Amino acid sequence: MVYYFDKASVGLNHLMFNYSMICVLRECFPNQSIVVIINEEQLLVIKEKLECVSVTNIEYRAIKIGLSSNGKWSGFKKLINKNREDLKFYKELLGFSKPADLIFCATASSISSLLFKKINARYPQVYSILTLHGEIETLYNAQSISEKIIASIYKWNFKIKAGNFEYLLLNKITKGFLVGDGFLKNDEILEISHPFVFRPAHEGKRKLSDTINLGHIGGLMPRKGSQFFVKLAEDINAGNNRGKRNIALYAIGKIDQKIAITSDTPLVRLDNETQTLISREMYDEYIEKMDFAVFTYPQDQYVHRVSGAVFDALDYNKPLIVTAHPYFKSLFEAAGDIGFYCNDYKEMLKLIEQLSGNDEILAKRYDQQIRNISIYKEKINFKNISNDLKSQIKRYHAI
User: Which superfamily does 211-379 belong to?
Assistant: First the structure.
């Protein structure tokens, strides 16, 4: 039996990850029943999605995420109640689990993850996997007191001894950091590419538009270096119409108030200047219209945190234009020519000026870049990721 649970995601948050990861585990353990334990709203959507792709032998159990409380200390009480509820859940789940079972924690807060590890230490016969997400970045780049506390909780977590317990990383970069810095041992870590069930293959664009559309996919915020995308719009506008093609920049997501932008900024924004989330339908519609997805992440951000925006771009076969970054360096090495890897902002600006100037060599690469994205998506489909995970689990466990 495989028990898959998410004790943190509210509503449809982490929906695509949960859906994709369940598909991976179904491939990895074809003869095992899987019990999926998540919030009710997401449960209904995932059930429908899994049934559409004929994923069977699944049992669904809905849970509530957190407990409500009122009054001056409502936030603190809610946190206490949430962790008390999680602790009870872990005790019950591990208490009735059998040695042949797998307990898979898809998502949990730092405190809840700590409780999960502590309870696991009491049940060394049960095999458990804890998925590590973006919070792991606090170990290397904590930017607030709360993030420093989260980092300390994970350091505490890593020191607890628990038999048959492993951590799952969703990239091929972080393991080297955690092992090299002494946080974890090599055999305590599983690592896979972030699972993502891509849409069915489709042709889409195969050549550059007369007006090249550049999209910032996902919310604009300082942590993503989004201010450089805004600067790109301003710098391109200052020299626009010099080339044979025009350039249009789109902000496909909510714009954080810390990003300096006005009504005069030459940028198409979809949040109606209200700093609110855009609909998924609009989000998908505009990604489809883009020629390139642009990412200007600072080199010390999103190293250990996987961005869903990158996968959304790849899902729609959009070549990337990025500034130097460890994650994108690894991605381009694995996938080949799937866009343009620029050493810095100046190089990115120069590249876009070349594209607007109708550089034939760059334009001809566009079709091949799209083909390479399709090849890479096949390489990281959930069946191949499942084989990767299975081979790692086999080293230590009989499955």
Answer: Glycogen Phosphorylase B; (3.40.50.2000)
